[in-house]
Sequence to fold (603 residues):
Amino acid sequence: MQSHLKTILACLFLSQALWSSELHKDSVQLEELIVTGTKFETSRDLIPLSVSQINESEIKRSGHYNALSIVGTHVPGVFITERNILGFGVSTGGSGIINMRGVGNSPNTQVLVLIDGHPQYQGIFAHPLPDAYVASDVEKVEVIRGPASVLYGSNAMAGAINFITKKQHKEGLSASAHAAYGSYNTQKYAGAIGYNKNNFSIFASANHDRTDGIRPGTDFKISNGYIKAGYRFNPHWSVTADANIAKFFANDSGPVHNPAHFDVDILRGKAALSVDNRYGKLNGSFKFYHNFGKHILSDGFQSTDQNSGLMLYQTYLIGDDTKITGGIDAKMFGGTANSGMAANKLNLVTELAGYVLAYQKIFKIVDLNGGLRFEHHSVFGNEWVPMVGASVQASPTTNLKTSVSKGFRSPTVMELYLYAPNLNLKPESMMNYEVGWMQSYLNHKLRTELTLFLVDGKNMIEVDRNTMPPKRQNVGTFRNKGIEFSTSYNINKQWQASANYTFLDLKKPILAAPRHQVNFNLNYQYKILNVNANLQHIHKLYVSVSDEKTQNYTLLNMRISAKVLKQLELFASVHNILNQQYEINYGYPMPGINFHGGLNFNL
Fold:
């Protein structure tokens, strides 16, 4: 680890020495504004947490159908498991594990997924449903790498991913359509329409994706609809409402060494309402959300679930150098499960929380941040969650950060009441320590970010099979440390490049946590032509811990598009150009070289 760190630091110091003389004195820092790390829009430089952002153009150029797949190639420290050309699936053979800094599980309950700031997870098992996150409905993605529990509570133990959905920005009426076809009879069709006038906006879309799958019995299909409407009453008050419904069907033929048949039929929906106020010194939001679902599995398991909540927070600016945010969260989740023999109406679990965040600027260059959350769970009691950090603007081009934060995860309804249950479980928890260095060169055309982190976890919930019957206990621990490095370079109007690297040092093997991960993106734009290439290298990825099976592979993907008319774009993509033979889920071979192409129409 020390040799990797010395090499990166040496390169960065040399780069700064060579290019600092070329910086223009009158250059202006182009701030990257984020909301996920603070609940209000602010510069990323002022937040001590590690936050990454993926914009709409990067989402479009990636060519991914699912928004979660994009995160795995654009954000350091994050790895997403996949098993098919489309469809993550659920249950034993499912993928879609989100591993952040070596922390993740199956089902994934330790990284919180948000849509427009609202928690999104299944009410019984408490994991996100990655198949429902359609890339064409997403405008921007913000990722907190490291605990976000002080802001969002349970399930944000290792971090948070916030999918910010599209809304109608353009004045008047607009419409779009998308169609694509590719290998394995993979198809995508999408349409959207939007309208914006006199402070009222509305955006609606419909999508249908399907594939025959890379092996017999691995077909997948999904249809979903989404609508968002907003109205601004005056400069200070606005309201936004949105709803989404998704229906998907997935087949699982089992691992190649143990073939089987398993399928799932899932309906997921959500609705949300947000009332926002914006004054000179006071701003905040009131949010209500309701998620629901019905799952039918071929092994006889059926469930209905819900996850509902309220969020209220306000930020008060005391002068130019002090901000205080206070908030209240209330959640209720649970459902009914039927294993084929008897139905279990599970107790609804509630969580109530209050938190305060404070920001103070001192000496004009130091930004201090601190936060404290108190959370009460209806089953296991109370949890205190602290966070403290600092950001130092050492120069117009240099920003240094450090933070200490706690993350925690409440036991799920399933862990409390189903499958080796234990009502005496305690929350899982971890402490995260990190330091970071953000640097820009060449009049801010070239940017780099280096982060070193150490995480210690305890009370991890594991099934103790030495008891009869087996019972879940708080027996697990972990200690992970590593390096995250990312860079972006706007070379000129035609060429843009970005890259990230993650080194992860683990005390013991963990699924979906590669030791080395490299992602490189290169984009070329010339008149009507756009070419995007992505290279990913994965080294020492554990696909099976029990017998320590690992995978190393390198993926090269390319997408070419041409805007042949003002309203019409044609595109073609090729994935796994090197035709790598590899697995991410043990026993589930991933596709070799594959293609798809299609068109986008915008009015």
